[in-house]
TrEMBL record:
Chief subcellular location: membrane
Signal peptide: none
TM segment ranges: 12-33, 45-65, 77-96, 108-128, 148-166, 172-190, 197-213, 290-308, 320-337, 357-377
InterPro entries named among the record's database cross-references: FtsW/RodA (IPR001182)
Keyword check for Transmembrane: yes
Pfam families in the cross-refs: FTSW_RODA_SPOVE
GO cellular component terms attached to this protein's record: cell division site; plasma membrane
Record carries keyword Membrane: yes
Name used for this protein in its record: Rod shape-determining protein RodA
Listed GO biological process terms: cell division; regulation of cell shape
Record keywords: Cell shape, Membrane, Transmembrane, Transmembrane helix
Protein topology in the membrane: Multi-pass membrane protein
Localization per record: Membrane
Source organism per UniProt: Bacillus yapensis
Amino acid sequence: MEKKTRVVEKFDWTLCFILFVFFLTSCATIYSAQTTGQYGDTNYFIRQVLNYVIGAIIIAVVMIFDNDQYRKLSWYLYGFGIFLLIFLIFAPESIAPETKGAKAWFKIPYLGSVQPSEFMKIFLILTLSKLISDHHEKIDYKTLKTDFYLLMKLGITTLIPLGLIAKEDMGTGLVIIAILVGMILVSGITWKIITPIFFIGASFAAAILYVVIKIPELLDKYFNIDEYKLNRIYSWLDPESFQSGIGYQLYKSLQAIGSGLITGKGFGERAVYIPDNHTDFVFSVIGEEYGFIGASIVIGMFFILIYHLTKTALDTTDPFNTYICVGVISMITFHVFQNIGMTIQLLPITGIPLPFISYGGSAMMGNMFAMGLIFSIRYHHKTYMFSSNA
C-alpha cells in the first residue's frame, strides 16, 4: 500500500489533466468536422480515440525508463531513426507509397501509415540533450573554441536527419530547425557566436523571401524550384487570387474563422466547407464553431501546457532533463505557432498539424512519446525536485 501511495504521489497528475482536456477538445472537434460529408464511412472520431489510447500506452512504456537509461539509449534511437529515414527513400512503393506528392510514410498492413520523421524529432531531442550535457561535463573551462565545437556537433547531428526529411516534408524540416534553435539558446554557447549566426540566418531567410516575392524567375533559372512550392508562397500572400486552386483551403479557412466572430456558430453549426478540416485545418473548425472566445481558450490551453513544461525544466536538477524539456517546448511551440499561423494567413501553409488536436496517428504517437519523457522526468525525480532540500 505504501509503494502504491508513492507511485500515485510521483505521477504527474497536472500533465495528465492537461492531456485529458486536449483529448476532449480533439474528439469533439473531429466529431464535428467529419459531419460535412466528405469522409464517407470513415469514422475519424473513433480513430482519434484509438490514437489517444495508443498514446497512453506509449506514455506508460516511456515512463518505465529514467534519464540515465535514456542517455544510454539516445544514440541507438538516433541511429534507428536515421536508418528508417534512409530505408524510406529506397523502400518500394508497396511499402512506402507517395502520398500527396511526398514519400514520407510507411504503409503497415492492418495498422495504417507510420511517419518515421515524427519519431525522429524525439530521438533528435534526446541525442542533442546528451551532446550538450556530456560536453559540459567534460569541459572544465569554457572558451570560444569549445563553444564553437559544441555548436558544430549540434549542427552536424541535426543536419543529417534534416537533409533526409526536408526534401519530402518541409514542414517537419522546419520543426527540426526549431528544435535545434531552441536547444542552442540554452546550451550555454556564448552569444558572441550565436548572435552573428542568427543574424546571417535571418538575413538569408529574408533574402529568399524577397526573391520569391519580387524576382521569382531567379529561383526558376538557378535553383529549378518546383512551381507548386512557389505557388504555395504566392497563395499565402494572395489567397483570393488562388482560391480556385492551391489557395482554396487558406481562403476558406479565413472565411470560416472570420464568420465565427466572437462566440461562434455553435457545435456542428458550420457553413464553410474546408477539405480535410480534421487534420491541418482543425483550428478553422474551432474558430468557426466557437469564435474568438473558443479559439482563445484553445490557445490558452497550449500556454498552460508550455508553462507546465517550463516549470518541469526549471524544477529538475539534472541538465539532461532540462535540455529534453527545452527540446519538447521548442517542438510543441513551433507546431502551435505554425499551425495556427497558417490558418489565419500569418504564415505559409506547411502541413504541420496542431498538437494533440489534429487527427493523425504518427503525430499523436510522437507527441505522446515526448509527453512520456516529461512524465518520466517527473515520476523518477519528483521527490528530489520538490523536497525541502532541493
